[in-house]
Write a structure and sequence with these properties.
Layout: H1 2-19, E1 31-34, E2 37-40, H2 45-60, H3 70-86, H4 127-131, H5 133-138, E3 145-150, H6 162-170, H7 173-180, E4 192-198, E5 201-207
Antiparallel strand pairs: 1-2, 3-5, 4-5
Length: about 220
Amino acid sequence: MKIKLLSIMLILLLLAACAGRTPDRSIPGGRAKLGAGMFDSCLSPEEAELAALINRARAARGLPAVPVTASLHAVAKWHVIDLSLHTPHLGKTDDRGKQCTLHSWSPMGKGRGEWQALCYTSDHRYSKGMWSKPREVTGYPAEGFENIYTVVQGSDLKPVIPATVLAKWESSPSTGDLMYELGIWRNSNWKAMGIGIHGSYASLWFGNLDDDRGEVTGCSLKK
């Protein structure tokens, strides 16, 4: 009877310990959870192609390549998955009635990337909420800055073509300047980059501190 009671108590203690455990948000060497689904801690062929195109274009401008790192890759990937599944930008507004944009995040972060909801508006009132996402989601030790892209046309979902994404970002001074360290981003000296593609969305992040979680490579290169 005593042995049975001790066994039950041990099981209850183990369950309590698991329930109180903080979700693991580290990416290297594992897979990040998304409810019942998952995404790999490596770059899809499209993500790897977009990263290569960006670094090639930077090199043509005399800028160094920026490594795609685990923390910023995770932030970018979570964001495009959130945009695809929960559409925090569609038909939603802030408390002033201003439309939420593609930089927005849904309230569905619990148990996933642990992000806080954000309705990002075109007047950039909530820019700090967006810049803090790398710290919030992965513990990256600096602010991050994002380019975002979608090919959703009405009710049609179109595949993301990396060369088209780059051309679109280059066509706008705000997104082009971020990639090539021009204008307000001059001398940013980016140390880390994140690329995420999911559904009809692409996300690019930059940060100016090294990422201690290291670099990520293409999924086909992983052993």
